Amino acid sequence: MRSIAAVLLLLSILVSCNEKETIRFQVHAADHGFYDCPVRINLAALFDEIPEGIRLSEVSESGTREILFQYDMDSPEPAIWFVMEGELNPGETRQFMIRGTRKNRSGSVYDIKIGQDSDELVVIQGSEEILRYRKSEKMPPEGVDRIFRRSAYIHPLFSPGGEVLTRIQPPDHYHHYGIWNPWTKTHINGKEIDYWNLGKGQGTVRTMDVLTSSSGPVYGAFTALQEHIAFDIGGFDSLVTMDEFWDVRYWEKKNGRYLLDLTSTFRNVIRDTILFDAYRYGGGIGFRATEKWNNETCTVLTSEGNDRADADGTRARWCIVEGVSSVDEGRSGILFLSHPDNREHPEPMRVWPPDSNGGQLFFEFCPIRHNDWLIIPGVDNILKYRMVVFDGSMTREEAELYWNSFAYQPEAGSQSEYRTASLSHRLTVSPSH
Question: Which residues pair with 156 in a beta bridge?
């Protein structure tokens, strides 16, 4: 298991005068700094008896500040999430406290909502729209072949200030759809299936159903089932070859930015193996940028120091894409983060060079850029990404902090560790996966 000695959790359990348990803990950064880091706490590991309600606070020299949390409804055990707001530098410590109460307070506000109709699912914070996920097939523009219709993508994706950052069905590539991830050169029993280039008529990806959705004060989340469909194969007009579960989680805006997590879990549902050929496009996470961004109005910076001119085909832990915007800051962008557990990490990228496609911007983390991937029937394959969406600009130092928060995300230890913890006993925190 990857070392996580950079983050330590220190617990002490106290009992207040009204016999309600109060648990104090601190997050200490040793080797890595963090920024706006989501933290998960296992309540069953802290309380012998889960209280009717809880209050979560941060304790500092200036006093105690109550902070928002949200119950993890996807967990089989009682747990909560909160965001450790702002920066935590190496060597620094933040203090927190959970107190059992008779009634929930900070967990009762629902500012982030998930709504949907027959065509789209929408994520909203307050009165502001964050993104839309397409459930039904979107027809191409009038006069364009119906073969380019498609669902299972995110568009529009808005910046914190309301700028639309994605684009769909551009005339140069009608098969481009905002944020999406079909596989390109694949083979089943020697027959080529291209789920990306819709114009070939070999395959597509469609939304089957939205399985779950969660609203709350800290995040909004949904899980969509997407089917990868091959046409004219094995005697069938169409055949579902892979199921994919898209887990999307939007974290509340902090400091004028927000986090968007996308986890793709896909499995081969046929008898034969599926070969993803090594190719410059396919899978991972793809992004077709707004038409405002071209070789004169946008920039690219990777964790390895590459820019748009030389990033294509290289590997990176993160990549910043940003460009002109109508917001007050004049620029908007997305920091794309690849998780260390991903195949081929640091992950190869496809980045359109500035002299191609009219200077327009396309970016993709592409796990099959350099090596084939054989997909065995019935086996779950997981790829995890985070996007930090912002207005203005982002420094490489900030990008490193965000990546640390994604790669080394702290989570409470096991139940036995908590119950046997003595005062001031240090517990090594394991990363959540």
Answer: none
